[in-house]
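Exercise 7.
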Amino acid sequence: MAGMNSHDDAVREARPFALSGKAKLGLIVVIVYAVFASTQLGFSWSRFEAGLGHGARFLARMFPPSLERLDVLWQGIAESLEIAVLASTLGILLSLPISLLGARNLMPSWATWPARAIVSLCRALHPVIVAIIFVKAVGFGALAGVLALSVASIGFIGKLFTEAIEEISLKQVEAVRASGASFANVILFAVLPQVFARFVGFATYQLDSNLRNSTMVGIVGAGGIGGTLFSAFQRFDYDFVCTILATIIAIIMLGELLARVVRAILLDNVSLTDLLRGGAGSRKHAANVEAPGATATLRSDPGTAGGDA
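Solution. The predicted structure, written as tokens, is:
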């Protein structure tokens, strides 16, 4: 029996990516269903070739970009930025207490289930569907967009931040509790320091996501550049559409650069001056920050060095 087990282990080591019989059967079922679904949806090679021709003519009509209505463009872009920032701020502030209530390693079950239900409800519908609901409720404009993207932010940040809290080490929590600290101090000094880096990453990604989603919710009347883009499509102003799309892409890329700057400042303790000087200055600053900590560790435990010697 032991010989058979060792033989099976040797086969697994020789073929680490080998699939079991059930995995192969499941893969075959997925492939068969994918082929069946493609036959039911009206896909054809002739349609694909015709689409390439239509797409080429559409792109040809988009160039050169139009710069005639820049005032309308900047007004829509400014409104989209305002919607994204407000929705991200509101969603993050609301998701923090909900995430803490949803963490099963910190809260009882009677508190975690309602919090998790709220997060699941916020994630159940696409932001465009939520935007349509809010447009019907509060009317056309930026308010509907802010509310819709706030709901989406709660669903995303709430889920990920809850999972991050549940993965923390409880040793720090128990140590702070043993000192007689209140529950608020336990959260501030034992929980948040362990998840702060991940939370910054989640928050910056959500801001980037809201910048993109603000375009989609605008198409249904929830404010922002999306309404301007939809109107340009309806008027067949494809050169102006190209200008709008290029501006959106540039803003998203700029937002990514700003997110990297925020993470470097908050997580790596890199100053803005070092960032402007370049990567060499940032690496030098990081080395200077780590070196005193290592020196202090060596000085604080001289007996260990002597014992090792």
